[in-house]
Amino acid sequence: MRFSVLSIFPDFFDSPLSCGLLSKARDKGLVHFSFINPRDFSTDKHHNVDDRPYGGGPGMVMAVDPLRRALDSLPACARVLMMSPKGRPLTQSLARELAQEEELAIICGRYEGIDARLEQICRIEPVSVGDFVLNGGETGALCLIEAVGRLIPDFMGRDESADEESFSADVLEYPHYTRPEEYEGFKVPEVLASGHHGRIAAWRREQSLETTLSLRPDLLSRAALSDADVHYLKGMDRPRRGRNLFVALVHYPVENKTGQTITTSLTNLDLHDIARVSCTYGLGGYYLCTPVEDQRDLAQTLIEHWRAGHGLRANPDRSEALGRVRVVDLLESAVDDITARIGQRPKVICTSAKAGTLTFPQVADWLRDEPVLLVLGTGHGLHRAVISEADGMLRAIRFMDRYNHLSVRSAASIMVDRLLGDAG
Amino acid sequence: MRFSVLSIFPDFFDSPLSCGLLSKARDKGLVHFSFINPRDFSTDKHHNVDDRPYGGGPGMVMAVDPLRRALDSLPACARVLMMSPKGRPLTQSLARELAQEEELAIICGRYEGIDARLEQICRIEPVSVGDFVLNGGETGALCLIEAVGRLIPDFMGRDESADEESFSADVLEYPHYTRPEEYEGFKVPEVLASGHHGRIAAWRREQSLETTLSLRPDLLSRAALSDADVHYLKGMDRPRRGRNLFVALVHYPVENKTGQTITTSLTNLDLHDIARVSCTYGLGGYYLCTPVEDQRDLAQTLIEHWRAGHGLRANPDRSEALGRVRVVDLLESAVDDITARIGQRPKVICTSAKAGTLTFPQVADWLRDEPVLLVLGTGHGLHRAVISEADGMLRAIRFMDRYNHLSVRSAASIMVDRLLGDAG
Q1: Strand pairing partners for B80?
Q2: pLDDT at B211 over 70
Q3: Does the N-terminal peptide bond of residue A253 adopt cis geometry, omega within 30 degrees of 0?
Q4: What is the mean pLDDT of residues A232-246?
Q5: Do B139 and A142 make contact, defined as CB atoms within 8 angstroms?
Q6: For B343-372, what is the mean pLDDT?
Q7: Do B397 and A407 count as a contact with CB atoms less than 8 A apart?
Q8: Which residues of B touch A218 (CB under 8 A)?
Q9: A-chain residues within 8 Å CB-CB of B59?
Q10: How confident is the model at residue A189 (pLDDT cuts 50, 70, 90)?
């Protein structure tokens, strides 16, 4: 495979490509490198390749013409990539795809960026090494070259070790051990010295799952998992951010469609559905808030039917869910109850179908360390007095759309899932 | 700031650290580099630092002792990082955090990995450059050094250009242009030559939002967005994968809790809630499947009340949602109807609270190119005959937990949200 690298710093690549396996692969003729310096294609007498940006602002911009000419010098069959923060993220699966090519060209930008017209004129695929800012494309290009290069047949001493590592199988790697068998009191796990291949393989898989669950649970959402894997994960302890999350459904004060302050009546399936969400996601609690005593009595009667009455015999799972509902008069009582139970006042976060600036990842981060009470309105939404006293408002679900009319049951389900997912 | 790099290939870093701004920063004394070769700390006469893995398998493992000794040679105040796929992902926010330190040490592993006991004995923070496999930690360390180094005061010519780029503000950068004003028929956007700073800033922000929505909509979920940003995003066209997603709610054949085949009756709020989800997420359609004619008539009566009767006047939004529901006898009729409408048979994907192997990202990928019908059961779940004829089963929500009893309304809401999110 040939990598053609377009860079104004071709020397950047000298030492990294002369080390270790990449150097050996060059010697074996498995990979070839060409370096193309856009300065050599500049028609400017000083070989400049940059100029000031239209519209002002800091830094310089790489001009389109030298890069355009440099690209014209490449073999026509080359697949042309450009390192850019807006690109397709570099993943193991992209590396595997690129390893099938014969000719890859990589454009490395410098300064503030490259004149946008280059991409309008030439067929270029932007690739991003990660969500961080670098001085130019060279370092990302090196990651790409290494990730792709090592997948070329015969690159590694033995083929099997190239693609059987972390991310090759969408879970993190198991821990490695080598001699001595004991070091500063720490021993190699016994199973690894057992010689029992089946047990070693099972132990390594379990360690992989455990490491992934503990450090990168997000990877599990796309990992291929066997029934045995799922069974093992079910038995694992994990940090449960859900314990810090509380939900309140408010029947007063809420607004009607003309903005008047009203009290809404209880909806039986709100009670059931949100209780079932609370139980399934392991929430700290679910509060139903209505100042009307009759309505609180009705809620309690419904709950008792399932918690201890006929409902318990018919459906014990439902009993577990509804047994968690707490019926109170006002939102403040829910806040006080949480504060008394866990010794810390929760952050009170309102929700709305229309507005809100707090992002879900932001609130999910808070849940690591502190309690959060998510407040859901009934009717046409929470009264402005509730909103003005809260600690913030969560961004609306589907905030980029004009039609947004979910039931409070759906909204609660989606919000809790966005905050906790499968693992939280 | 001092970077101490532990690597058996210290020469790797020679040329990258002698180019561009990093080289200038070294000359100015802003950053210092020390290279520590674990081989120099090996007590083996051949200066070996690796050995075969306990438990077998390909490759070699870096031994704990030389690295442990190398770490002991560092200043006690150093914050010790290790490049590792299992680490905290390198992001701009981590780079900002690390830029506050005076002494950073970076361990670069090679071979299959490092003996796991090193982390048990020493305080080490693993950092990952991305979800791809490299030959060792050196290339990732270079990314980290560059991302962190450029945030040190005075590193950049002007401070403002260090952190005002892509990911600094959680959205992608606007396009850059420099001379000439016209190139191969492509002109610089007029606004940039207007000299009107307010209009230029607004245009650049809009371009940033547009690029992010089109290429990395996932970034918007954590981006800080103003009301004007949200207003602009609402007006943007975007690929709507939701159009390829259909939902069917099946009342027959389903199972009861003893596994017998039954027909369930209609639930009014299933009709409403899932219709509202379908409309809010712009789905291709929502099918209600019951072979009982009376039940279909009842469903139609309910729908007509909201679509054209009193309900329309009371709540036109509800009318829009319920007007989309199609009532059919069996799942096959829903499949036939979709096939007739769009000229392609949908992939039929079952759902369950207990099992399933298809991941959400996998099904979300399909939605780019082909129709998918998500089949939800009532009662105690879909009949095994439905499952065995489907093209697959989606992994259960909260698959790592034993308690999982969401209502079908909640499950439908969460599944659709996981497949489409805010932008899909």
Answers
A1: B105
A2: yes
A3: yes
A4: 96
A5: yes
A6: 96
A7: no
A8: none
A9: 158, 161
A10: very high
Return the amino acid letter for A362.
Q
Q: In which element (H, E) is residue A21 found?
A: helix A20-27
Q: Distances in Å between the alpha carbon of A73 and those of A40, A41, A65?
A: 11, 10, 13
A134–B150 C-beta distance less than 8 A: yes
- DSSP one-letter string for A128-182: ES-SS--SSSHHHHHHHHHHHHTTSTTSSSSTHHHHSSTTTSSSPPPPB--S-SE
* Residue B111: C-alpha distances to residues A153, B44, B128, B398 (Å): 18, 18, 16, 36
Is the CB of residue A262 less than 8 Å from the CB of residue A256? Answer: yes
Contact A53 B178 (CB under 8 A): yes
Rama region for B370: left / alpha / beta (φ>0; ψ in -120 to 50; rest): beta
For residue B131, which residues of chain A lie inside 8 Å, CB to CB? Answer: 91-92, 167, 219
Number of residues in chain A: 424
Residues in chain B with CB shorter than 8 Å from the CB of A52 are 178
Instruction: Tell me the C-alpha to C-alpha distance, in Å, between residue A277 and each of A49, A308, A350, A411, B357.
Output: 58, 20, 18, 11, 22
Structural tokens at position A249? 């459904």
Please answer whether residues B373 and B382 qualify as being in contact, where contact means their C-beta atoms are separated by less than 8 angstroms.
Answer: no
Tell me the two tokens of residue A377. 């309105």
With an 8 Å Cβ cutoff, are A22 and B135 in contact? yes
- B281 vs A13: CB contact, 8 Å cut-off? no
**What's the pLDDT band for A159 if we cut at 50, 70, 90?**
low
The nearest alpha carbon in chain B to A398 belongs to B422
**pTM for this one?**
0.96
Crossing angle of helices A293-307 and A268-280, in 10° steps, is 50
Core vs surface per residue B132-165: b (16+ CB within 10 A) or e: bbbbbbbbbbbbbbbbbbbbeeebbeeeebbbeb
Q: What is the rounded average pLDDT of the residues A298-313? A: 94
- State yes or no: pLDDT of A98 exceeds 70: yes
A176–B273: do the CB atoms touch at under 8 Å?
Answer: no
Best of A96, A111, A176 to substitute, by most chain B Cβ atoms within 10 angstroms, is A176
Choose from B21, B227, B410, B417 for mutation: most chain A CBs within 10 A: B410
pLDDT at residue number A175: 97
Residue B165 has pLDDT above 60, yes or no: no
A346 upstream amide cis, omega within 30 of 0: no
Contact A414 B414 (CB under 8 A): yes
* DSSP-derived 3-state class of residue A382: strand
CB-based contact B127:B74 (threshold 8 Å): no
Range B140-166 average pLDDT: 81
The answer to whether B95 touches B127, Cβ cutoff 8 Å, is: no
- Name which of B364, B356, B353, B349 is nearest B411 in CA terms: B353
Q: What is the pLDDT of residue B111?
A: 86
Q: Given this model, what pLDDT does residue A102 score? A: 97
**Residue at token pair 């992939």:** B347
Q: Is a pLDDT exceeding 60 seen at residue B162?
A: no
Q: Is the pLDDT of residue A167 over 80?
A: no
Sign of the dihedral defined by the CA atoms of residues A192, A196, A201, A202, in that order: negative
| pLDDT higher than 80, residue B238 | yes
Q: Which residues contact B365 (CB under 8 A, 6 or more apart)?
A: none
ipTM (interface pTM): 0.96
Closest by Cα among A267, A248, A21, A300 to B268: A267
Closest CA to A390 of A344, A419, A356, A420: A356
